[in-house]
Write a structure and sequence with these properties.
Elements (H helix, E strand, L loop, with lengths): L5 H6 L4 H11 L10 H13 L5 H9 L16 H10 L3 H13 L17 E11 L14 E10 L4 E9 L18 E4 L6 H9 L3 E5 L6 E6 L10 E9 L2 H6 L4 E8 L4 E7 L6 H9 L2 H13 L10 H23 L7 H10 L7 H6 L15
Parallel strand pairs: 1-4, 4-5
Antiparallel strand pairs: 1-2, 2-3, 5-9, 6-7, 7-8, 8-9
Helix pairs in contact: 2-6, 3-4, 3-11, 4-5, 5-11, 6-11
Length: 385
């Protein structure tokens, strides 16, 4: 039987040396008053794993594990005031940068690679999700007259379904405006909904060597240049495959090149989905399936919102909210790495629930995630008479 808690074993998988390098670079331990950056990280990860609703819950929860905290790399449970103060004052950039450091290690598990598409291009799914906030408490989070919100503009890597880029803005920032700062990977494919049908944005992507697969708006005005032949027997859901150019003079100035338009019948929702792309050689079915894969980012947002703690915030400052969101992203990365490293076929919701119930139980983590329903408690030693 393991002699340290489940939570301690999970934390031991984090690369502390890389974290310390970021701390040194950003000087986030300067004037820390006994509550170091590492203590802060552990406290916020506990907030996510335990789904703590307040700084009191975090402080009391960690205090309840007296005698085990040394395995977490901390000496004592933090006070409520320490957590509140550092959530307000220690830069959230520390948590953001550490997420991407972990993504380079934990996120490189070979089982993250998906092989549904035969194309060699890297696939990214683009969308945003709005997180409502009370404007009277979060007065910096402008959205509507009586409501506040922040918006997560997210580029999800299709391999592993983990964010490769996140831009957190106030709620009133339009989806397409939040996408202009996205770092572009030449030769990659971006898949997005109609809210990103911004011709100037699409032209920037095309000029940068990026392929896009976007659902177009119903009012798109175009001229058909060429009709591609549809499959005779297979893929009967493909209704149209044509090369077009934009008709409106203003639109043509923003995007002067030819586009490909593919219309697909969605049998689940009983509707026609109309897609435009600058990829002219792949099959129409591949284009349709790429757009269909966009649903994975909706699943990701649902997982983060339902399983982790980004609906109720333990601090009201902008920095505190950002820290809580980035700690949630670190947690989802850890959870997905654990799931892929397990022999048992976990649903993520079940894994989260089981860990939450056993955070301070002393059982072997790997044995437990491999065979969760077997008895892992060793029998007491037999005494010889």
């Amino acid at each position: 039987m393991a002699n340290i808690t489940l939570f301690s074993q999970i934390i031991s998988k984090l690369d502390r040396s890389k974290f310390n390098k970021i701390v040194s670079k950003k000087e986030t331990d300067k004037h820390n008053k006994g509550f170091s950056s590492w203590n802060h990280l552990i406290s916020m990860l506990f907030c996510q794993f335990a789904k703590s609703q307040s700084v009191r819950d975090i402080s009391n929860g960690l205090r309840s594990a007296t005698g085990n905290l040394n395995h977490l790399g901390i000496n004592k449970a933090p006070s409520k005031s320490s957590i509140s103060y550092q959530n307000k004052n220690r830069s959230h950039e520390l948590f953001k940068e550490y997420y991407f450091e972990l993504l380079q290690s934990l996120g490189q598990h070979p089982r993250f690679k998906q092989v549904k598409f035969r194309i060699k291009s890297k696939i990214f799914l683009l969308d945003s999700s709005t997180i409502p906030l009370c404007l009277s408490l979060f007065d910096w989070a402008h959205y509507r007259t009586a409501k506040g919100a922040v918006k997560m503009h997210t580029v999800l890597d299709y391999d592993g379904n983990l964010p490769a880029y996140v831009n957190i803005t106030d709620g009133k920032t339009a989806d397409n405006k939040g996408a202009y700062d996205i770092p572009l990977l030449k030769g990659s494919v971006i898949v997005a909904d109609r809210f990103y049908n911004d011709l100037s944005l699409l032209n920037i992507w095309d000029s940068s060597g990026v392929k896009f697969v976007i659902r177009h708006k119903e009012n798109l005005q175009y001229t058909v240049i060429k009709e591609n032949e549809l499959p005779a027997k297979r893929h009967q859901h493909i209704l149209k495959d044509e090369i077009i150019e934009l008709k409106n003079a203003d639109s043509k100035q923003k995007y002067p090149k030819a586009l490909r338009r593919v219309a697909v019948w969605d049998d689940v929702n009983k509707q026609v989905i109309e897609i435009i792309t600058n990829q002219l050689t792949w099959t129409a079915n591949t284009i349709g399936e790429l757009y269909k894969s966009r649903w994975q980012i909706e699943i990701f947002f649902r997982e983060v919102k339902q399983l982790l703690n980004i609906k109720s915030f333990i601090g009201t400052s902008e920095n505190a909210v950002m820290i809580q969101i980035w700690s949630a992203l670190i947690t989802i990365l850890i959870l997905k790495a654990l799931r892929l490293g397990a022999k048992f076929n976990w649903h993520l919701s079940n894994l989260v629930a089981f860990i939450r119930l056993n955070l301070f139980v002393k059982i072997d983590l790997q044995k437990w995630i491999d065979k969760p329903f077997e008895e892992h408690i060793e029998p007491p030693p037999q005494f010889i008479k």
